[in-house]
Fold this sequence. Notes:
The longest helix is centred in the N-terminal third of the chain and has 17 residues, at 2-18. Strand 1 (43-47), helix 2 and strand 2 form a beta-alpha-beta unit. By secondary structure, the protein is α/β, with parallel strands linked by helices. It has a single domain (37-362), classed as Single-stranded right-handed beta-helix, Pectin lyase-like (Pectate Lyase C-like, 3 Solenoid). The chain contains five helices and 26 strands. Strands 1, 2, 4, 5, 7, 8, 10, 11, 13, 15, 17, 20, 23 and 26 form a 14-stranded parallel β-sheet that branches. It has a ten-stranded mixed β-sheet with strand order 3-6-9-12-14-16-18-21-24-25, covered by helices on one side. The chain has helices at 2-18, 58-61, 304-308, 313-323, 331-341; strands at residues 43-47, 67-71, 75-78, 83-84, 89-92, 101-104, 108-109, 114-119, 122-124, 137-138, 143-148, 151-153, 160-171, 174-176, 185-195, 198-200, 208-216, 219-221, 227-228, 237-241, 244-246, 258-259, 266-270, 273-275, 285-286, 294-295.
Amino acid sequence: xxxxxxxxxxxxxxxxxxxxxxxxxxxxxxxxxxxxxxxxxxxxxxxxxxxxxxxxxxxxxxxxxxxxxxxxxxxxxxxxxxxxxxxxxxxxxxxxxxxxxxxxxxxxxxxxxxxxxxxxxxxxxxxxxxxxxxxxxxxxxxxxxxxxxxxxxxxxxxxxxxxxxxxxxxxxxxxxxxxxxxxxxxxxxxxxxxxxxxxxxxxxxxxxxxxxxxxxxxxxxxxxxxxxxxxxxxxxxxxxxxxxxxxxxxxxxxxxxxxxxxxxxxxxxxxxxxxxxxxxxxxxxxxxxxxxxxxxxxxxxxxxxxxxxxxxxxxxxxxxxxxxxxxxxxxxxxxxxxxxxxxxxxxxxxxxxxxxxxxxxxxxxx
Length: 366
């Protein structure tokens, strides 16, 4: 009898191993959305220098696929030329000693690549960029990409460029103070998830999403145009849930919290708030009428309500203010957050990072 039980147990174990996996591992604990299944890399590689190139540099680290990258140095890596990522990479900015790690001056590109995880990295392009067609982070035609707790400021073309991107998540990040075109993010193809991000002082594209999209628990401040599709954007579905739009000094029309969204679009919108009066107090009113879009009675994406959890728009504001961006929070991010906390009385759309008055010609000092 014991032998029979042992044989049955062995067969059962074999059967379980042969079953197709119904749940893939997440990119990291707490990852959400369509980019959360990015696999990243597994081969350990440490960045040991702030030099732009050479052995142990960030450029060296991302030059080969399959790497899981850590940092034994902190500070800014000043890029002399754009950096192109390989596929199957994990970039663990949170491993850098305090005050953290950042890159400045040129674009980081994941164009055409797949399975990339980027966490706790500061990406600040600014006027050191010599090509006005480049963005702070470019993932055009990429797939399975997640950015989490990143800080992206001073983007030139777009802050985040994701035209043709498939299965993307940008979460818990700061996307602020774009110069040049003064755009936040541009994503096409999708599907995409924008979760718990802080969008600050952009002319438009927070984001521009020509894709099936989840837009949940975001805060958009001092916008001229907020969530945008563009009337030529095609036919897509959008779950817009528990976000807070807050007008600022540069906001010419608070009603442009949703911009260029026509009846080709289908939208499930609930729990969104708009604070339009610029009075220094968080006192928004319901904002769930999204252009002339077709109204959905339930989310198009089955996970949208579970991502929200219990966070209302007001709770999302508090959480995003406390937690968004790379950690530990540095001079630039502290400036961005304090601007938002003025609740309508401070903020500007800029053309040069130096106009912030921050150290290091506006880039801040790490």
